[in-house]
Amino acid sequence: MQVLDKKSRLRKTIINFAWPIILTNLFSTLMLTVNMIMVGRLGPAAVAGVGLGSQVVMISFAVMMAISAGTIALVARYTGAKEPEMANRTLKQSLLLGIILSIPLTIIGWFMGAQFLALFGSEPDVLELGSIYVKFTFIGTTFQFIEFLSAAALRGSGDMKTPLMVGILNNVVNILVGYVLIFGYLGFPAMGVKGAAIGNVISFMIGAVAYLYILLHGRHKLKLRRNHVFFDGSIMRKIMKIGTPAATEQVLIQTGFLVYTFIIVYFGTVELAAHQIGMRIQSLAFMPGMGFSMAATALVGQYLGAKKPRTAEKSAIESAKLSAIVMSVVGIVLFLLATPIAKLFISDPDTIKYTTLWIRMLAFSMPAVGIFFTLAGGLRGAGDTRWPLYASTFGIYAIRLPIAAFMGIYLGWGIFGAWLAFVLEYYARSVIILWRFKSGAWKTIKV
After folding, report:
1. Are 158 and 302 in contact (CB under 8 A)?
2. Considering only CA atoms, which of 255, 278, 253 is closest in space to residue 36?
3. CA of 407: how far to CAs of 178, 369, 410, in Å?
4. Which string of b and e fits 321-334 if b means at least 16 CB within 10 Å?
5. Residue 156's closest CA among 403, 380, 438?
6. What's the CA gap between 436 and 434, in Å, rounded?
7. What is the pTM of this model?
8. Which of 59, 237, 334, 360 is 20 to 30 Å from the Cα of 219, by its Cα?
């Protein structure tokens, strides 16, 4: 009975950590999804262009993930060890590092984003619209970094609700501004794809200002202290030491995604548009898994900081079980409602047909996605950021890309073969990460 009570309390703690993250990520992805629905009214070329542009923009995500992974692991450890001042110092150095690194990314995105996009070799109208989206979205990189890293630090400290509140504000602003600028209301000209990008930038700016105000003036576990050392190289090095494998993982993932998109482009604009719509739906479907992943990251880090490795292990295992169950339910819903969901995004019959196929194939990957995300999150909370890198690299480069090219192009299975490779990849990833977690080697990692 006592064991059941402990398990029940642990599950309650996990759910309390996970649900605000799930809702935060859901709102964030919903923002992008609503934008895609609005852009979808402009036609398949606009959808494909924004989709390709989003993948170029995601290059900056690798840098954010590096700082974020180090930040959340250190803040969680310091919180668990009852060292609030070190947690506050980590917050400040994380934000400073993010601002420094975001500046060259902004410059590169503005001046070279179109060249990166041209590598896809898609149709001219798709490239033109995608280039506009890339150029203007990169303006908001610094604000996006501040917002992303502030949320990561607060989650590491156990505060899951503040990022939820800021996320709601962010999304309301983005949808309203995007609607006005895309279609031209309230005296503004109809900007189309450019309006969607500017809406993103304004929402990032509002979110960044909100976080800075909260961290300077709010009553939270974390605070930005003016009296701390402005530049602390030792903390920055710790952040990057933990985060560099996560950044490498994201670089390899995003590079793999770009190569994967080259394969998708081979099949035509309609298939590419369906794929980009499917990726928006995928982002929404992945939200529960991401929520449990971040809960596992924070809990494992805090319990290890408190010298409770056994409880850290249990928290990750229970998080993975809950994640697999919830993601399986999501998969069932996706499979049953695939066509109505596709029709929300676009009215073109051929695009709807292919989008429905993609959604149903995505549904089969959901249990594996839940297990991989959550156990990888637990390893990151322990500072073991290398094995998620290994699993992701193997999954993309040994499974997804060669199988997509072989089945989709060589065997002539078309887009079905390319998408099937995605499903197989996540099952391979989940097996690798489960093996690493079971080994227990992550319990002894020093941060």
Report:
1. yes
2. 278
3. 39, 22, 6
4. bbbbebbeebbeeb
5. 380
6. 5
7. 0.74
8. 237
